Amino acid sequence: MWSELDSAESLLSLRGLTVAYETDEGLVRAVNGLDLTVRRGETLGLVGETGAGKTTAALAVMGLLPARRAVVGGEIIFEGEDLLKLPEKRLRSIRGEQISMVFQDPMTSLNPSLTVGAQISEALEVHRAGLSARQAAARTDELLALVGVQPSRKNEYPHQFSGGMRQRAVIAMALACEPKLLIADEPTTALDVTIQAQVLETIEEIQTRLKMAMILITHDLGVVARCCDSVAVMYFGETAEGGTAQDVYEGLTRHPYTDGLFGSIPDLEGEAKRLSPIRGLAPDPTALPEGCAFVPRCPLAREICRRRRPPAAALSSTHMVRCHLPELGPDLKPDLKPGEEPSGRPGGGWTERPSRRLDGRP
After folding, report:
1. Do residues 149 and 172 lie in contact, with contact meaning Cβ atoms separated by under 8 Å?
2. pTM of the model
3. Which 3 state secondary structure label does DSSP give 347?
4. CA distances (Å), 5 to each of 105, 157, 242, in order?
């Protein structure tokens, strides 16, 4: 959810988060004023195209951005503390114990020269100094069994595990200290459909058991519909739309970018011969646009969109879009040239979008 809906149940709040990388070609702006809130025990789906800034935002929360290259601004409030202002020693005590992350590629997340069991035990050694070697070994066995891996395989190396098994091992590492927040960065991307379902079921079961919150970063809108309580759609480093899963999937009003993402999904019950992908490419991150970053790709763009950065407009108490369209009126139609197709799903003025059920079907 986005920060305007903050409450006493807030676990993590990003407020105006900015991240830029200093390069030889100039400043690359990866995150540009990101606002969102994660409540205790909820699952937030963070979606958007490659390059939207999802992983960079997650790494900023973890404090894992390159110190010499990354310029970070705004606030990252976790349990009432701004993580950006904490000394490294305090941040290390939070990272891995209270906030953990499952990284995109399990093969590169694991050390090929250490056994899987040794890597899981390492987190316990760092954050549970009072544990004996026998207790750490028993806890490692427990964690492997929790994620569906035979404890007898703890002395094997990552290359001896399949892709799904490696991902389960990485999840076990992240859960070693029973964190309050788990960040899962595309945990099923490299897995086949059957293994994807198994990994998601494992994560859901563990989340329910530990009552932890989760940020699920993914390109798969079907996964978000299945697993998430709320959704934040990122574009060019900021929240284009945020709300409950029901708001985003079933609502009649959506951001044009969100609508374009849905238009890129095959509809098994429809008769369309072609998908309706979002036209064009994301803007250059070294040149921050004056107005809305989505203007070159938006079929509903107007002059005000080119001149002024859009505000966060509340569509309801739980739903927002960062767009000028709500203030321009409900009957706005695409501004197209003769014969030009709108991006996103057909039929669309601002309030005439077909809704989608939470099972991903229209």
Report:
1. yes
2. 0.87
3. coil
4. 33, 45, 10
26-39: strand order across its sheet? 26-39, 10-23, 70-78, 81-82
- Kindly state the helix (H) or strand (E) to which residue 195 belongs, with its residue range: helix 193-210
Tokens 């080119």: give the residue: 306
For residue 27, the cross-strand partners are 22
| 38 within 8 A of 181, measured Cβ to Cβ | yes
Residues in the chain, how many? 362
Q: φ and ψ at 224, to 5 degrees? A: -60, -45
Question: Which tokens belong to 268?
Answer: 């098994």
Show the tokens assigned to 92: 């290390």
| 3-state SS track over 311-328 | CEEEEECCEEEECCHHHH
Tens of pLDDT along 178-207?
999 999 999 887 677 888 888 888 888 889
DSSP designation for 2? -
Q: Is 38 helix (H, G, I), strand (E, B) or coil?
A: strand
Which sign, positive or negative, has the C-alpha torsion 166, 123, 31, 325?
positive
Query: What is the 8-class DSSP label of residue 348?
Result: -
